[in-house]
Design a protein that fits this description.
Chain A: It comes from Flagellimonas lutimaris. Chain A: Keywords: Cell membrane, Membrane, Transmembrane, Transmembrane helix, Transport. Chain A: It is a multi-pass membrane protein. The complex is a heterodimer of chains A (343) and B (259). In chain A, helix 3 runs antiparallel to helix 11 and helix 3 crosses helix 13. With 343 residues, chain A is an all-alpha fold. Chain A is globular. The longest helix of chain A has 35 residues. With 259 residues, chain B is of the alpha/beta class. Chain B has one domain: 3-Layer(aba) Sandwich (Rossmann fold), CATH 3.40.50.300. In chain B, 29% of the residues lie in helices and 25% in strands. Chain B contains eight helices and twelve strands. In chain B, helix 4 packs antiparallel against helix 5. The chains are: A mainly alpha (343), B alpha/beta (259). At the A-B interface, helix 9 and helix 10 of A face helix 2, strand 6 and helix 3 of B.
Amino acid sequence: MQGAKTYRISFVLLALALLCAWLLNISSGSVSIPFADVLSTLFGETPEIASWKYIIWDYRFPKAFTSILVGAGLSLSGLLMQTLFRNPLAGPFVLGISSGASLGAALLLMGASLLTGYTSFAFLGDISLAIAASIGSFLVLLIVMIVAQRVKDTMALLIIGLMFGSITSAIVSVLAYFSKAENLQRFIFWSFGSVGNLSTNQLILLSGIVALGVLLSVLSVKSLNAFLLGENYAQSLGVSLQKSRLTTIVATGLLAGGITAFAGPIAFVGLAVPHLTRQIFDTMEHKVLIPAVMLYGAILMLLCDTLAQLPNSASVLPINAITSLVGAPVVIWLLVRKRKMMF
Amino acid sequence: MAKVGKNILSIKDLTIGYNSKMVAEHINFDLETGMLCGVVGINGIGKSTLLRTLGGFQPKLSGNILLKEQNIEKYTSSNLSKELSVVLTEQPASKNLTVQELIALGRQPYTNWLGSLTKEDKQQIEDSLDAFLLKDLRHRKCHELSDGQLQRVLVARAMAQDTSLILLDEPTTHLDLYHKVQILKMLQELSHEKQKTILFTTHEIDLAIQLCDRILILDGKEHPFGNPCELIEQKHFNRLFPSEMVQFDAKTGSFKVNK
């Protein structure tokens, strides 16, 4: 396919946009800090008020970094799913990965107290929540992978993923019905999604997971391109179907599962960003699309987080609601304008 | 007439079908370099099954398929992709690909892990665009093309894959007479000039008789194979359809409806 040359300007502009979105994100928050002070603090100087340095480096910086990881990772997993399932409506949610994470979180937050009869809040640190969610998403992923070995048809796999989603959300509803109000509230707060609560260790772990997912995706560039013709054509081009499908599913699982575990279920980024990206990058070449959707997703996530932060006020809106409010109209707009969604 | 060269495809006592359900058995034929061969027969007789079996999309039930004198199961998938390319009845999964992008995918067996195109790859893509009159359409998206244009693109992609054998499943369906003839003429040119062996299934028996070097008739029994004139002399086409409905006219090489 055509080289990345033609898109150099678009990439430079996107990188600049990412820098602007990042600066905007870092300089807004519940405490108003003048932009000049934000800049000088970022360059290592001590600002007028000492606590500003703490706010910027220990709170806003990791939060912005998480947003970038979450946006880039979810968008990439959406792109992988759309190519693998040859379906423009596929996203990280379709394989039931996010529902699996929800189930893990729900079992920990609401199930544990139901089973043991008392609430063990001391246990429920953020780390155990992330671990429970990871286990949940990887269990669902494991089942999907076992099914994937048996079911040859990718569309059937897509439907099976959706069914897993329905089963897990039904179990979550049952748990919610029997659970105590405060536990339910904790679960609901997790499902709002958040990019601001990660510790340094969690952030390092998440970076590692996302990096591995990106690496696997980059290694499958060629088979992803071949999948654009359909599975039979891909096979005739020498692509090993089983191996490529598995690599793609594992990459998606790492990206979507890891991110959902740490940041909660964040909707629409994975579905909408690949479509938005194709508005600028009019190509199907994954060598171009992979870096492009990651940049685009990071920008969108930073902007959504900036909006959720409600500048200069103490309240933070649920990020999951913001991404849906931004993402769903985008999908509708694309459908109305182009009449047909293509991937 | 094409130069007669070495054996590309040898089918020996092949039985095809699904699991235990046999579709056709005792299929035998040989194809040499640069031959254009049509497979004809009534619906459901096993034309597509034969093509899918030869293409490696479904296992054979028994018999041998030799590609360049080597058993086809012995090929690794990457080696096979350099010897055998296909044009299927299914549409490309993404119609958002441009003509050039789609044809370039045919070079995948030869490119590195990132799929970067070398000078040779690009030349091959240009040749394919040229041969199928697609130079002006190269930046068009596949969903903007007519059926005839899209079929040319898919065949051009197979040509870019630069294999000794090309299999096509009903390349002329959904096309008007002009485009049917156009695509078959192009296939004939490709086989004779580039020395490609081409096997395609079709319902256009009269066109196949005029253009093919060899024809395989799947009739559920003997599966006669040979050059069209011989097959006409041996009256094999007369037995293709129930005679009360249509009759074969040996003089014109076409079928007539019984009134």
